[in-house]
Structures are given as C-alpha cells and as structure tokens.
C-alpha cells in the first residue's frame, strides 16, 4: 500500500511538472504545432528567466559589452549611471549549451530579449520547456518580403552623358539630382555637411556589387551576413542575392560625380545582411534583431532598413495588420528599444498601397521609428506607398521622400538603374538624418524627428497618406542650433537644485562657458561662468549647479567663448521643476520593461490620489496608490511578474484631474 501511495505521488508530481512545462509554450506555437503536424522542425524563440549570476563585472566595465562610441551615443538619452542595463548583457552560455543538448539547432541570439532562436521538433520543444531557466517558447515571426513587383522592376540606364542639373551647386549630381533636390539635399551639401563622423547601418538583403564605382570612396567599417553567419555580405557561395542592398546603399551614401551622389556620402557604414532571398519562404525577424543589436554594440548612429514585413500564407506564422500597434511584432519592439538607446531608426513604410485599414509592415508601426513613405518626382504620393494609422491610432507614415523612379547603382559593373518603392525613399531620408546629426551630434532621435516633422511640407496638417509631408533637409538643418563643441548637454532636477552637465568634443581655443537661463516670462540672462580647458585636445566634463530656483519651468543654454572673443550658443534644454503647480505622471523607466518598472508622479497640493493599472481594454486590474498624498514628487515600482506581455495603461486621478500613461511589458 505504501508503495502504491508513493507511486501515485510521483505520478502527481510528474503531472504538475508537465503542466508547468506546457504553460511555457505560447498559444501561437501550440496552435502551429497542432495545425502544421507535417513539420519536422519549428523555428522558435526560447526565452530565458534571467542571465545567470556574476553580472556585476559587466556593469563595472560597460566596454565589455558595447563600444565607447555606443556609450557616447547613449549618453544623449540615458543618465551616466545607466548607460547599460540588463538588456545589454550577453545571453547565458550555460543555458544555451543545455538547450543545444536538448536537440535545439541554434540560429540567432538576442541579448535584448534574453532569448535564442532556432529549430526544434515538437518533442524537443517539450523537453526544452522542462528546464527551470526557460521562461517561454514562442514562434519566430515570419513576414512577406517588402518589395513586390513595383518595388524592384528596375530599369537599366545608359548614363554615359547624364543630364546636368541647372543651378550653382558645388557638386555634379547627374541623374540623382531630382531625388535629392526634392528634399533640398544639394543646398545642405553646399553648407559643408555630408554625414562625416556619423555611422550608418544599412540592414538589407545583401550587397552584391561593392566594387561599383559609386562605392569606391565609401568607408565601410564593418559587415556581417546574419543569414549565413560570415563576414561576406555579397553573393559569393552564400544563400541570398544582394542587388537590393546594392541599390539602397548607393542611394544613401554612393558617390560618383556626374552620375550618383547620396545624401550621406561622407558617413561611415555598417552593412548587415539580414534577409535570405533564395526561396519563397518569408523573412525571419530574428536576423533583423541580431543585426541591430550588433550595430548598436559597434556604435551606430542611424539605421536604414528597406525591409518591412507583414503577413504570409500558411503554414508560416505571421503578424497581420491588426498587430501593427507598436507593441506586438518583435522587430518593432527591438526598433523602439534601439531608439531608447539613442539610435535613429529609419524604416520604409511598405509597398501595399491604400486599404480600409493600415498597410504598414513591421517595424514601421513603432512609435519611435521614422516611417518613410514614397512620392513621385512631382511630390504626389506613389500609389504603392503604405498608409496608417497604426492600430492604436497614431499617424503613419512620418515623412515622405521620392520613391518612384529613383536612380541607383545596379549589380553589373559600373552601371546604373532606376527603381520604385519605399525601399528607396527610406535611404534618402536616413541620409538626411545623418546630415542633421553631423551638425549637432547631441540631438536625440526624437529631436531629429521633431526637426524633420516641423519643417516638412505638411507639418500643419499631417495625415495617414503623407504623414507630416516631404522632407526639407535645408529647413530642418537650419532649425538645429549650432553645437558648441559638445558631445552631450544634460540637466537634472533633484532636491531643489538643477544640475547641468556637459562634455566637450574638443578643447581647442575654449576660453569658457557662460551659463544662461530664462523662464517663459523672461529673456536669457547669465547665471554663472565656467572656465574652459584652454588649448587642450582632451575632452573635458563640466558641471554647474543652479540652486536659485523660484519658477516651475526653466530653459538653459551655454555660451561658449573662444580666446579671441568669438562665441557660439548651444542648443536649449528645458527643466520642469517638480511639485509646484501641476499634477504630472511621468513616462515609466525602463519602457518596455520586464519584470519591473519605476513610475514617477508629482502632486502640487495636499490631495487624495488614486493610481491604477488597466489592461488594453480599459479594465482596472490593479491599484497602485489609493491614499491622501502631500505635495511633492514620488516614485513607485510596478512589478509585472504576474502579468502577460502586452500594452497597459497607468491612470492617475485626483478630484477632477486625470493623467494617463501607456506602458509596455515584454516577456
């Protein structure tokens, strides 16, 4: 009898363990395995619970996970003590080894999502799920390719004597003049900007003709094929055909006077081959995620992706237009994470034209992604250009550039072609972003986007056909204040004082800085002087504390003075002094988050405050604060361990005041 009881107990424990393992398999994967029983292997994501132990060494030495240039770029959007976080640490290799022993065929790793992708049979999936360090197993999203018939019906051009543009531009643009002149790039080149010092990553289907004359002066600093896992991004002996990448790369940064010039011909370039074009199978999201993580670690400033992805036919598991909400597709989440690390992410809108709903392709639905539509040379929207809005109601695309009959390098010798698609309006726009960052490298991605939106042709009446309109590079760059030899300029308020911090790119002839301040009701006035480093060539970090604060909003700028008396002003930064006269609910950090995030709020007067968490349907699922609160700024921590991945809303209410915040949980 005792033996029987023991046996039953063991069976019960096994059943509980099996049920626990099954709960780790996402519904999408479970449905796929049930409907696609013929498949011997499934392409899946395996997510881990953590990154293991002994992580302090990474945080103590950030250069062990990302480059110095990456850290400098992140300083524009992150505090000095948080330049790296858990997403930057590598996936635990011991976990990977165990999964491989379970029969898993490794394809890609993602440190941002703490996951690996690869192939596994149904029985292997169940075995993998039984590991305690495995959090979830899901399908790798697959997508139809962005370029359809209209996209790559290129026309070969005999261009021995291309027409010369009229005007007084310094450079001879040949047949590329029309596409550049529409967005005022030649005028910006005449000012001396060509993207120098900015690093651009082009993520595409390969680059099959790098010996082309248009690339002879291009500075390619890194290249990797994420399809075949080697440094060869061309066609030699590999899966994938690279004529598309050759075209987009030439549009953004090619240089051959009298033939073709790209907006950012002076930039440094990283090439990532992320799509296999050999078959009719769809594109996998994991290649793109791996590519952008790699580019981030090198120190990329701008990414240009002319591969937008949407649905695909059975048996492949896809996202659909209903998923274009900015928080569902993995590559969209990755794109927004990249922007949160200071990267300007530029993506083609897609070539699916208009419909009764959005026709965007991920990651164009991202709220921090620069989504680019296409127009003709006369400025009319190209009929194939995809439209918004996103499912959560945001306007897309953001901006437009020429995408019909765009001139580019071709795959054969030193010949040229013309083709159409948002794949070609995207690199034109990304090149303009590089020009803006060259003028002021301290700009955040959202500051670049704001400059482009506010100077585009439809800035006052944006819509889901044209977004904010056609880019005007000259007006955008003239809107950007001249930097004062800075790599960063930040302000933080705490305990009644504002702490200013800035870092110089060079100290040559720097006498010092006057710190100037104003409010909404006053002009700038000097509040202090900080001596410069003289003629030193080393970078210096400066600090200034302002403790004479009376109002609720301040603006600061720096007046950098040279020894000869000449001076330049920095860009302006704004500081809202907390807790004086307004209820505020601040954006959570980090966002997206897993498993916890911090939410800060400000209460101006003694008030009864209720803060609640709601699901995407608006149903209240948790109370975070429900009490009388004294004036001040407070911070709470939201633990999402018991919640499912997705979008949530945080709502602050007090008497007739209500504030709402959107947050995203990724597991």
Walkthrough of the structure:
The chain has 667 residues and is an alpha+beta fold. Among the domains are: 234 residues, 3-Layer(aba) Sandwich (Rossmann fold); 91 residues, Immunoglobulin-like; 82 residues, Macroglobulin (MG2) domain (Immunoglobulin-like, Sandwich), CATH 2.60.40. The chain is built from 14 helices and 33 strands. Strands 8-11-7-13-14-15-16 form a seven-stranded parallel beta sheet, sandwiched between helices. Strands 21, 22, 24, 25 and 26 form a five-stranded antiparallel beta sheet that branches. The protein has a four-stranded antiparallel beta sheet with strand order 2-3-1-4, with helices on both faces. A hairpin with a 2-residue loop joins strand 19 and strand 20. Helix 9 packs parallel to helix 12, helix 10 packs parallel to helix 11 and helix 13 packs across helix 14. The longest helix has 21 residues. The radius of gyration is 26 Å and the shape is globular. The N terminus is likely disordered.
Write a concise keyword list for the protein shown above.
alpha+beta, Rossmann fold, Immunoglobulin-like, five-stranded antiparallel sheet, 14 helices, 33 strands, 29% strand
Overall geometric form? globular
Q: How large a portion of the residues is in β-strands, by DSSP E? A: 25-35%
The name of the CATH topology of the domain at 155-279 and 371-479 is Rossmann fold
Question: Are there runs of 5+ residues with pLDDT below 50, and where?
Answer: 1-17, 146-152, 312-316
Overall pLDDT level = 85
Question: What is the CATH C-level name of the domain at 155-279 and 371-479?
Answer: Alpha Beta
Total strand count, please?
Answer: 33
Helix content: 10-25%
Largest sheet: spatial strand order:
8-11-7-13-14-15-16
Head-to-tail CA distance between termini = 45 Å
User: Structural class of the helix and strand makeup?
Assistant: alpha+beta
Q: What is the tally of helical segments?
A: 14
CATH architecture of the domain at 155-279 and 371-479: 3-Layer(aba) Sandwich
CATH homologous superfamily designation of the domain at 155-279 and 371-479: Peptidase S8/S53 domain
Taking Cα atoms only, what radius of gyration do you get, to the nearest Å?
Answer: 26 Å
Strand count, sense and barrel status of the largest sheet are: 7 strands, parallel
């Amino acid at each position: 009898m005792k033996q029987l009881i023991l046996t039953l107990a063991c069976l019960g424990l096994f059943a509980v363990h099996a049920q626990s393992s099954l709960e780790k398999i996402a519904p999408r994967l479970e449905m796929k395995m049930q409907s696609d029983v013929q498949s011997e292997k499934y392409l899946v994501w395996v997510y881990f619970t953590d990154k293991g132990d002994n992580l302090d060494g990474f945080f103590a030495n950030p250069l062990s996970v990302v480059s110095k240039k990456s850290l400098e770029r992140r300083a524009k959007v992150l505090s000095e003590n948080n330049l790296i976080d858990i997403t930057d640490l590598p996936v635990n290799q011991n976990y990977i080894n165990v999964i491989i022993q379970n029969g898993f065929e490794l394809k890609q790793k993602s440190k941002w999502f703490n996951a690996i992708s690869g192939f596994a049979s149904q029985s292997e999936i169940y075995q993998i799920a039984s590991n305690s360090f495995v959090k979830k197993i899901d399908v790798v999203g697959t997508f139809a390719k962005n370029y359809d018939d209209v996209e790559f019906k290129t026309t070969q051009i005999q261009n021995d004597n291309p027409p010369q543009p009229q005007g007084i531009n310094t450079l001879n643009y040949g047949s590329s003049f029309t596409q550049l002149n529409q967005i005022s790039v030649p005028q910006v080149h005449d000012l001396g900007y060509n993207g120098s010092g900015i690093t651009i990553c082009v993520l595409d289907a390969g680059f099959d003709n790098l010996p082309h004359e248009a690339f002879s002066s291009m500075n390619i600093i890194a290249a990797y094929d994420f399809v075949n896992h080697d440094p060869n991004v061309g066609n030699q002996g590999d899966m994938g055909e690279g004529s598309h990448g050759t075209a987009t790369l030439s549009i953004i940064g090619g240089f051959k006077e009298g033939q073709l010039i790209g907006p950012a011909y002076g930039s440094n370039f990283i090439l990532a081959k992320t799509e296999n074009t050999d078959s009719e199978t769809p594109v996998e999201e994991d290649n793109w995620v791996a590519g952008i993580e790699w580019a981030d670690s090198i120190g990329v400033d701008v990414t240009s992706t002319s591969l937008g992805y949407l649905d695909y036919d059975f048996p492949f598991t896809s996202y659909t237009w209903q998923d274009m909400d900015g928080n569902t597709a993995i590559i969209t989440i990755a794109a927004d994470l990249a922007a949160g690390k200071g990267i300007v992410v530029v993506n083609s809108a897609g070539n699916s034209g208009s419909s009764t709903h959005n026709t965007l392709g991920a990651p164009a639905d991202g709220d921090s992604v620069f989504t680019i539509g296409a127009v003709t040379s006369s400025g009319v929207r190209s009929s194939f250009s995809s439209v918004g809005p996103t499912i959560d109601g945001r306007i897309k695309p953001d901006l437009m550039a020429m995408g019909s009959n765009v001139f580019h390098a071709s795959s054969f010798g030193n010949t040229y072609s013309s083709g159409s698609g948002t794949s070609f309006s995207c690199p034109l726009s990304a090149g303009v972003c590089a020009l803006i960052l060259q003028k002021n490298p301290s700009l955040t991605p959202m500051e670049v986007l704001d400059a482009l939106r506010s100077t585009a042709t439809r800035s006052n009446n944006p819509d889901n056909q044209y977004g904010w309109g056609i880019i005007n590079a000259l007006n955008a760059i003239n809107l950007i204040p001249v930097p004062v030899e800075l790599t960063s300029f930040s302000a933080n308020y705490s305990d009644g004082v504002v702490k200013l911090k800035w870092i110089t790119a060079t100290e040559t002839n720097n006498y010092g800085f006057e710190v100037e301040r104003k409010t909404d009701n006053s002009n700038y006035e000097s509040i202090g002087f900080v001596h410069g480093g003289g003629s030193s060539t080393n970078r210096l970090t400066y600090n200034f504390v302002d403790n004479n604060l009376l109002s609720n909003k301040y603006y600061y700028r720096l007046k950098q003075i040279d020894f000869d008396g000449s001076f330049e002003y920095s860009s302006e930064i704004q500081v809202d002094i907390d807790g004086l006269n307004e209820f505020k609910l601040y954006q959570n950090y980090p966002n997206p988050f897993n498993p916890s995030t911090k939410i800060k709020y400000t209460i101006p007067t003694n008030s009864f405050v209720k803060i609640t968490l709601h699901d995407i349907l608006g149903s209240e699922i948790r109370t975070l604060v429900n009490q009388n609160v004294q004036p001040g700024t407070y911070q709470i921590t939201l633990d999402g361990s018991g919640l499912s991945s997705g979008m949530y809303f945080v709502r602050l209410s007090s008497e007739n005041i209500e504030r709402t915040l959107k947050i995203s949980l990724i597991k």
